[in-house]
């Protein structure tokens, strides 16, 4: 088995494991949440931690030389040059309110960016995978190829973002300038929006304030499906921050022309 | 079979039929849309019309004396005093962008309001039904009881709405006053938000500008599950307009205290 195939097999094993654990907690009436940040609303569920611990146990057994970066349990160094980037429940607010737009995010980073990504939605039973020449979605044992769709003009684009008041005032103003140009803007899908983009159902996803584990897996899936992911200046986005994902490079370029005028974070 | 049981059986037959038709169009690459309003973005899909025609054909056969009001094909009079209120695809914007938050809405109105409702989400395979003493959700052949959850304080509530800029400026201001008091606000779920409320995962859904076929089925499901649905003055909401749905009457009362100060539509 090539290393690519082995990594895909391990990623699917991680996703299977996290799916079972998270589904066991999803929509439970006694779902325990606590306040991680100490202020505001940033729930962490037990499912989050259990799923990450289970994925890390598998990696310790199957991939002991790889580093691991997880949303819940931080960084564990490795020697292989590969880092597994894990977000056991991306979209905890969706999770705690019963909406199936959260997902399990699993990526492998080569040191220069993600080379493999999985977006798994346990409730709908959908898995989206991209990397090492593969790009597919699977549900109920049926697998289909993933490909972004063409959308040459911003005015034809369907745009998604999670929160209507994204980022700083300057970021929001930049976002709104794109929003005012597109055909349709929708809110609230968390990582599922990136999956829909990879599958060719939407054209743009724009977000700000992301963490590395929020975007590594979506980026790999979208790039494998023919899309483009960058920050708002056209630079690599896999470390987080401001993200612009597009199915069509032409649409990406038109959105970038607007977003690149937003002052750098910290200067606005 | 009592009339209640017969109506439930017919409603489920309608939902089965609409599910098959809508799923046949969902996420199709060549999904045809047209602009119904002639301006703005109000897509109608072929699936919408096909599903309503198929449901009407069943009703013509099984319930010839009942009236029918459908989103796509208007009103057909009847003599029984019962009206079937149909929205074959509630959430066409979600539908055309691949998001499984749209639904098939089916209600029976007695003349004084909905007495039976079905919210069906074909992609997740979930059905939510309420009326004639029944309140349940079913997926993959597994049926569970529906019950709203307790939430005595607005500050503990999870609130959903579809669009961040709902209604008129006065309506938006009223909505935002509630939003500023709750624990968490989420956007974008269309009729699926009402289903989550009936199932006890969220506490409030607030919308404005609804049509009768948007709210009839959700109201029946939520009331059967123990929740409260009214307009923003505490009056019946089943004819559409401004809607306030809550799982807990105490939470409903607190939101109503804020929303009832919004001037009547047409006077703001």
- Overall form of chain A: globular
Order of helices and strands of chain A: HEEHEEEHEEEEEEHEHEHEEH
What is the CATH architecture assignment of the largest domain in chain A?
Answer: 2-Layer Sandwich
Give the strand line-up of the largest sheet of chain A: 4-3-5-6-7-8-9-10
Look at the structure and name the CATH superfamily of the largest domain in chain A: Fructose-1,6-Bisphosphatase, subunit A, domain 1
Please give the domain count of chain A.
Answer: 2
Describe the structure.
The structure is a homodimer of 268-residue chains. By secondary structure, chain A is α+β, with helices and mostly antiparallel strands. Chain A has 2 domains: 4-145, Fructose-1,6-Bisphosphatase, Chain A, domain 1, CATH 3.30.540.10; 154-259, D-Maltodextrin-Binding Protein, domain 2, CATH 3.40.190.80. Helix content of chain A is 32%, strand content 28%. Chain A has 7 helices and 15 strands. An 8-stranded mixed sheet of chain A has the order 4-3-5-6-7-8-9-10, sandwiched between helices. Chain A has a 5-stranded mixed sheet with strand order 12-11-13-15-14, sandwiched between helices. In chain A, helix 4 links the parallel strand 11 (158-161) and strand 12 (184-187). In chain A, helix 1 (3-25) packs antiparallel against helix 2 (46-62) and helix 5 packs parallel to helix 6. Chain A starts with a helix and ends in a 9-residue tail after the last helix. Mean pLDDT of chain A is 92; it is low at 34-43.
């Amino acid at each position: 088995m090539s290393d690519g195939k082995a990594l895909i097999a391990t990623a699917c094993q991680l996703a299977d494991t996290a799916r079972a654990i998270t589904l066991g907690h999803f929509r439970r009436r006694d779902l325990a949440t606590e306040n991680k940040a100490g202020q505001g609303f940033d729930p962490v569920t037990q499912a989050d931690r259990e799923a990450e611990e289970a994925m890390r146990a598998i990696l310790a057994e199957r991939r002991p030389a790889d580093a691991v970066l997880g949303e819940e349990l931080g960084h564990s160094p490795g020697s292989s040059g590969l880092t597994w980037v894990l977000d056991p429940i991306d979209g905890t607010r969706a999770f705690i309110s019963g909406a199936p737009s959260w997902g399990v995010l699993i990526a492998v980073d080569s040191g220069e960016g993600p080379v493999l990504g999985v977006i798994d939605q346990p409730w709908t039973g959908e898995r989206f995978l991209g990397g090492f020449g593969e790009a597919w979605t699977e549900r109920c044992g049926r697998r289909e190829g993933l490909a972004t769709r063409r959308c040459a003009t911003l005015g034809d684009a369907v745009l998604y973002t999670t929160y209507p008041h994204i980022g700083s005032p300057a970021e929001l103003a930049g976002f709104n300038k794109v929003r005012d140009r597109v055909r349709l803007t929708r809110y609230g899908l968390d990582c599922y929006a990136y999956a829909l983009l990879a599958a060719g159902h939407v054209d743009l996803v724009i977000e700000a304030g992301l963490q590395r584990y929020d975007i590594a897996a979506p980026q790999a899936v979208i790039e494998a499906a023919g899309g483009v992911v960058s920050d708002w200046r056209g630079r690599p986005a896999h470390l987080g921050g401001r993200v612009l994902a597009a199915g069509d490079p032409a649409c990406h370029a038109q959105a970038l022309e607007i977003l690149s005028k937003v002052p750098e974070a910290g200067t606005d």
